[in-house]
């Protein structure tokens, strides 16, 4: 499997996980991730993220969003 495919799979898993953890519809998570460039962030940090579990990566994404002034409350 190519790295690009692995990144896409990770992005998809994290969208679903965020939806479950934050109690928001998948469509809203996709909009938020696109608006805040979370998908680009995942791609940029994939080298580190692929060694971590999805929960740890979601925690990092939460901090990334907070740094942009976006608060997520679960």
Number of strands: 0
Pattern of helices and strands: HHHHH
Mean pLDDT: 95
Low-confidence stretches: none
User: Count of helical segments?
Assistant: 5
End-to-end distance: 34 Å
Number of structurally distinct domains? 1
Work out the strand percent: under 5%
- Taking all Cα atoms into account, the compactness measure Rg is 11 Å
Q: How much helix, percentage-wise, in residues?
A: over 70%
The largest pleated sheet is described as:
none
- Estimated structural class: mainly alpha
Organism: Blautia obeum A2-162
Protein name: DUF3791 domain-containing protein
InterPro entries: DUF3791 (IPR024269)
Description of the structure:
With 74 residues, this protein is mainly α. The chain has one domain (1-66). The protein contains 5 helices and no strands. The chain starts with a helix and ends in a 7-residue tail after the last helix. The relative contact order is 0.17. The model has no long low-confidence stretch (mean pLDDT 95). It holds the Pfam family DUF3791. This is DUF3791 domain-containing protein.
